[in-house]
Design a protein that fits this description.
With 521 residues, this protein is α/β, with parallel strands linked by helices.
Length: 521
């Protein structure tokens, strides 16, 4: 047998190096292992064993201790000193039963021990065990390297700054985004104290930020709108999240994730200003719409006011005639004066409603008795109801929950939907009443206004609530668009349904007020 032998290399095979100065021992080992699927290498002295080990990096080395020249312990020492062979599992071979020799071998890094003469099953079992251990370790090392690479890639790709902090607040890790935000080189951040770097502007309560990010109480922290400083002393508005790190139940530091929100806060302020402007313009449009509605109702209103005024004039003429008589009937006079008072109140109520509808400003969201609001809206619609010769019915369940909304804007929506329903019914020749109803849903109050008009066109779903779209000949197309704007401003929804047998149901919802219902009558 050759003193040095190499079988063809197969990267999928485990490699086993057999080292013994006794050719017979090498033959026994070789014959025992050759059919087990291993790549087998043999050497009959220490120098040749080191050469083969450095070239092939075997998983397992069966190493004889008692060899001339360089013995097994010396070979083991060289193998462990070389990074290329340091991970190979060394199984010592010896006929010695000396406990001290075995202990010495294990202390030098030996993985196992086989006594001579060899037992085939024992050799195979010990070699197989060490190969599986080595291969598992290599798989774990490769996976760890992959995870570390993936982790580094992820941390480098994150736009938020990330610091690793020790319990004293010293930065132990910084990703590229942290360096960019801090305005410093990544390596220059490591070793600096977080308070000295980023919280130099702290004063009063703000001074606690440097302590908070250490999570000394073991709890995570989230802060927004915090002033942090850069390496050059300039400051920026930041949001940070800090989480504690534990090892074996002991707090070993924290992880700080932070980002510059200066521009984001400026955008939020600009957005809030825009929302305020939109709300103001919406209210102006709503007021203009109320004026427009009253303009459209002017003829009916004039008639509504003229009736009590005409009655008052007639009653005054009657009183004048009664005063001309020789005997004044006190009871009759009192009755006529009472009627004059009643008619003046009637005219005053009509004018009061008009003034309330036109001039009352939006009050903002409040708790609204929807049942009462719908009843008042029907009173506003009485003139239109008489002009169209169509009644408006009201169906409200007892103890309807209150909603949260702006009552003026909601009332404007209800009146608009009622007037549209009256006009649609009249144009279709229907005399059935317009039905106004309400019901409580799980988290909202839903109001419905139903008519028996001719219905809506097929493309209504896509266009009905768009500005300047109208299916009326003289409509401007802003009524329903404004209704949607007003309802969505109350955090509600609005829509419509086609009725069987003709007609349309317009509906809208308003969020419920918490724990509020009308008092039982």
């Amino acid at each position: 047998m050759s003193t040095v032998s190499e079988t063809p290399t197969d990267p999928e095979q485990a490699c086993v190096l057999l080292v013994d100065d006794n050719p017979q021992n090498l033959k026994v080992l070789y014959e025992t292992l050759r059919d087990k699927g291993y790549q087998l290498l043999i050497a009959n002295d220490g120098e040749k064993a080191l050469q083969l080990a450095r070239r092939h990096h075997p998983e397992v080395i069966l190493l004889d201790i008692m060899m001339p020249g360089m013995d097994g312990f010396e070979v083991c020492k060289h193998l462990r000193a070389d990074t290329d062979t340091a991970l190979s599992a060394i199984i010592f071979l010896s006929a010695l039963n000396d406990i001290d020799a075995k202990v010495r071998g294990f202390n030098m890094g030996g993985a196992d021990y086989i006594a001579k003469p060899f037992q085939a099953q024992e050799v195979m079992a010990r070699v197989d065990t060490q190969i599986r251990v080595i291969q598992l370790e290599r798989v774990m090392q490769a996976r760890n390297r992959q995870l570390e690479s993936e982790q580094a890639s992820l941390l480098n790709a994150i736009f938020e700054g990330i610091y690793g902090l020790d319990p004293q607040g010293v930065i132990t890790f910084a990703n590229p985004a942290a360096a960019e935000i801090a305005g410093a080189e990544q390596d220059a951040l490591v070793g600096r104290r977080i308070g000295d770097l980023h919280f130099t502007h702290d004063s009063g309560e703000e001074a606690s930020h440097a302590g908070r990010v250490l999570c000394q109480d073991g709890a995570a922290v989230l802060r927004r709108g915090v002033t942090m400083t850069r390496a050059d002393g300039t400051s920026f508005q930041a949001e940070y999240r800090a989480a504690p790190r534990f090892e074996n139940g002991e707090l070993t530091g924290s992880v700080l994730v932070f980002r510059d929100i200066t521009e984001e806060l400026a955008q939020e302020r600009a957005l809030e200003e825009t929302r305020d402007l939109v709300a103001e313009q919406r209210e102006q449009l709503a007021h203009a719409s109320r004026l427009s509605v009253m303009g459209e109702m002017a003829a009916g209103v004039a008639h509504e006011v003229n009736q009590p005024l005409t009655a008052i004039a007639n009653y005054v003429s009657l009183v004048s005639r009664m005063m001309e008589k020789d005997t004044l009937d006190q009871d009759a006079l009192a009755e006529v004066l009472e009627k004059i008072t009643a008619q003046s109140h009637r005219a005053s109520e009509v004018i009061r409603r008009i003034r309330q509808f036109v001039h009352q400003p939006a009050t903002g969201k409040e708790t609204v008795d929807v049942a009462r609001l719908l009843a008042e809206s029907r009173e506003f619609a009485e003139v239109d109801s008489r002009n169209n010769a169509i009644e408006v019915s009201l169906s409200i369940p007892q103890h309807l929950p209150y909603a949260v909304a702006d009552p003026v804007q909601v009332q404007q929506v209800v009146l608009n939907l009622i007037r549209n329903a009256l006009e649609a019914s009249r144009n279709c020749g229907s005399e059935e009443p317009v039905e106004v109803s309400a019901e409580a849903l799980e988290d909202a109050v839903c109001v419905r206004v139903a008519d028996r008009g001719c219905g809506l066109p097929e493309d209504a779903e896509e266009r009905l609530f768009q500005p300047f779209y109208s299916n009326k000949d003289e409509g401007m197309g802003i009524g329903l668009s404004l209704c949607r704007s007003l309802i969505t401003g109350q955090n509600g929804e609005i829509g419509f349904e086609r009725r069987e047998g003709g007609g349309t149901v317009f509906w809208f919802s308003l969020p419920l007020a918490d724990g509020t219902v009308p008092d039982p009558e």
